[in-house]
Give the backbone structure.
Amino acid sequence: MDPHMLHHTEYMAHGFCLLWERPLVWLHVVADSFIALSYYSIPLMLLWLARRRTDLVYHWMFLMFAAFIFACGTTHVLSIVTLWKPWYWLDGLVKAATAAISFTTAVLLLPVVPRTIRIPGTRQLTQANEQLQQKIAELNQTQAQLQRYAIELERSNQELGEFAYVASHDLQEPLRMVTSYLQLLEARYRNQLSDEADEFIHFAVDGASRMQGLINDLLAYSRVTTRARAFSPVEMNEVLRRAQHNMQVAIAETGARIDADDLPRVNGDSTHLVQLLQNLLSNAIKFRGKQPPRVELRARREDDHWRFSLRDNGIGFDARYAEQAFMIFKRLHSNREIPGTGIGLAICRKIVERHGGRIWVESVPGEGTCFHFTLPAITVKPFDPGDSE
Amino acid sequence: MVTTPEANMHILLVEDNPGDIRLVREALAMARLQCQLHVATDGDEAIDFLRRRGRHAQAPRPHLVLLDLNLPGRHGREVLREAKLNPELRSIPVIVLTTSQSEDDVVYAYDLYANCYIAKPSNLDEFMGIVKMIDNFWFSMVILPHGEGT
């Protein structure tokens, strides 16, 4: 800056205008001093605030304000200086700078204002917060209620399972007496009574033993839940081998042939899975046609599960009854045609559903039946040589 | 008159169901097993019999015990514990013969040194078969300690 500007002698100090009247000069000095002091302290506080609250929207606005107020403060310092020194160029330049900063700030502020108005205020925020709190409380209440229902449902389910188990177990005791003594009667007095009496005894023995069968099945059905074990990786090839081993007599007697893919590993309860395949195999053999049974077991990956399809060349059934086949004690054939109680497929469904899967059947009378079921695949395969069982 | 080695075999049957008691008797008769069947109808009586107390003071020492688990009063498990934790009685074979197929009962029975655990079959022929097998195994095939007590 040109030093002439600072020390121009042609101008008079501002004090001359005030006729150097001491009280008036001091009034200006004190007032300007306080204004300057305040204007310097406000930017400091704004800077402090802006530094701490980096999350503030329009963070830069605070910096602009700080600069503009600082500039204003400087003009007041120069007002004091010009009382004694006629540095009006400097004064004017500082004012011009202040004007530039102020104007920029004002222009920048203009679009900010309507947007700032839209920023929710503390009261609105408090209100919204209260509403949220209320919603959360309601949600918590609902969740607690749901949890109570879940616990209640689980308990009642468990009770039902236990009831079925106890009922079927305790029912066996008196039934055993009926069966045993009818058989004893039959063994000891057969041919000593009339033919009619023998027939009556025969019907009673038959009824009692069928009831025994039903109770045993009910027990087996309820055991699916009461004797459930935790899931672990299961080799389905091994499951099939065990199911075939359990069925070896029926397989040999009927000349059944079982052709299976190389089966995957799934996540499940191996005992139940053996029972599942065994029931389905036994179904295929039981409902065979005139040809020796031929069973194909295929496995296909679908998303996060495996779909198994077990196809036979048996007598099949009308597709209308496909859903009924899985109902407990529901039979599609009379006892005279093919003996059985109708629990096998109900157990299959219970086992598959316990594994989070689905079971369904397709069938054409005279052509055969195909059972499909899904089991969860093992998505992450941790290396553990001892986990195949 | 009876000279078979089983003639003076004593079996203690601990069973509360008269139907089952009769069945065991019938089965023993059919198996032509020459033995004396003693019956205790509850747990307390079974323990009295084994310890020869009260009205069983003159009771013989059984060669074999057939024990039902679900008994009125003291449970069959307690009878088993009494029999197997007593040094004088523990050599008597105890066969648990019960309707219970509960895993807990099976484990518990063997933990208390039951000699074997048999679930009562519902079929008469199977029941007879089991009694015949008990006869064959425990009174023909196996050598049991004799002469103690009785």
